[in-house]
Amino acid sequence: MINYRVENLEALVELLKSEGVTVVDNIEAFEYGKFVHIIDVEGNKVELWEPNDGE
C-alpha cells in the first residue's frame, strides 16, 4: 500500500470527497498522527497520514 504524508487531513478529505474520491474509512487519530484510506483512480487503496510532528 502507498502512504502519503499530508497536512490538514480533515480539509483534504473534505476536498477529495467533493471531487468524488472514495474515502474507505473514517479518520483515525493516534498519538503519532491521523490516518485515513482512499481509493485511487486505478482502484488501489492509498493511506493518507498527517503525522503529529509534536511527538
In a few lines, what is going on in this structure?
The chain has 55 residues and is an alpha+beta fold. The chain has one helix at residues 9-18; strands at 2-5, 22-23, 28-30, 33-39, 45-51.
Describe the structure.
- With 55 residues, the protein is an alpha+beta fold.
- The chain contains 1 helix and 5 strands, in the order E-H-E-E-E-E.
- It has one helix at residues 9-18, and strands at 2-5, 22-23, 28-30, 33-39, 45-51.
- The longest helix has 10 residues, at 9-18.
- The chain is globular and about 35 Å long.
- The termini are far apart.
Keywords:
55 residues, alpha+beta, 2,3-Dihydroxybiphenyl 1,2-Dioxygenase, domain 1
CATH superfamily: 2,3-Dihydroxybiphenyl 1,2-Dioxygenase, domain 1
**What's the main sheet like?**
5 strands, mixed
Text of the CATH class: Alpha Beta
| Span of the ends, CA to CA | 24 Å
Radius of gyration: 11 Å
Number of helices: 1
> Which percent range describes the beta-strand content?
35-45%
Structural class: alpha+beta
State mean pLDDT (0 to 100 scale).
95
SS elements, strand count: 5
Report the principal-axis shape: globular
